[in-house]
């Protein structure tokens, strides 16, 4: 259920970005046939060992990061870097302020532009934008085009454009996790980052973390 068996994996990977290699699901078979595709969403993160490992195993890897210097960079045969931020909305060209963020697009828009029908793994480390991005994927049914989700979630504050009191925020988070379950996504791995503050919605929380890495497999993908 991790990348130990894959070519190029390094134990120095800073976070356990675990994928499900269970024979019952499609990823391991698509890795073997060199047909898998990974999208990685990040914000200036220099830890790309996971992406390199997947690329070295033959996967087609697309890394989206608005801090990349050039619009598109190919690294080796299987790894592409794109100066693009995946968001929960497309920019409105009629609004001047949005033109500054023209390199921001919804995942569904990017899939259409790239001509990709499916993503085997979607990894996201987007510093509290993950909740709204996840909501967009669910509302637009894009999540059904994804085989596995590996998300870092932040719980020290509600997240971008999430408002309300604590119980409202928790219900919102829960509703998204529940929708994933209803769409037959199963949580198979969790990681609690103990290097982060023990905070939950701006309050100290003993034996908790403000940051977790969660991995789901779409059990409809056989």
UniProtKB/TrEMBL annotation:
Coiled coil: none annotated. Residues 29-156 form the Methyltransferase domain. InterPro entries: Methyltranfer_dom, METTL24. It comes from the Eukaryota. Pfam families: Methyltransf_22 (PF13383). PANTHER family: METHYLTRANSFERASE-LIKE PROTEIN 24 (PTHR32026), METHYLTRANSFERASE-LIKE PROTEIN 24-RELATED (PTHR32026:SF10). This is Methyltransferase like 24. It comes from Junco hyemalis. The lineage of its organism: Eukaryota, Metazoa, Chordata, Craniata, Vertebrata.
């Amino acid at each position: 259920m991790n990348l130990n068996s894959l070519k190029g994996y390094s134990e120095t990977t800073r976070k356990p970005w675990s994928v499900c290699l269970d024979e019952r699901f499609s990823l391991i078979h698509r890795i073997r046939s060199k047909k898998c595709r990974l999208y990685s969403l990040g914000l200036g993160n220099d830890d790309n060992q996971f992406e390199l490992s997947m690329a070295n195993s033959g996967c087609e890897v697309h890394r989206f990061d608005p801090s990349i210097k050039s619009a598109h960079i190919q690294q080796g045969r299987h790894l592409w870097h794109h100066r693009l931020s995946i968001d929960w909305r497309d920019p409105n060209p009629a609004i001047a302020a949005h033109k500054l963020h023209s390199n921001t697009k919804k995942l569904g828009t990017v899939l259409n532009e790239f001509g990709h029908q499916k993503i085997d793994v979607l990894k996201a480390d987007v510093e509290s934008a993950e909740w709204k991005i996840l909501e967009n994927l669910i509302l637009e049914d894009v999540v059904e085009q994804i085989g596995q989700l590996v998300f870092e979630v932040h719980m020290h504050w509600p997240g971008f454009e999430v408002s309300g009191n604590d119980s409202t925020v928790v219900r919102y988070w829960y509703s998204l996790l529940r929708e994933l379950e209803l769409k037959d996504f199963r949580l198979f791995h969790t990681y609690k980052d103990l290097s982060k503050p023990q905070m939950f919605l701006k309050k100290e929380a003993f034996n908790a973390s403000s940051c977790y890495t969660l991995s789901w497999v779409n059990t409809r993908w056989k």
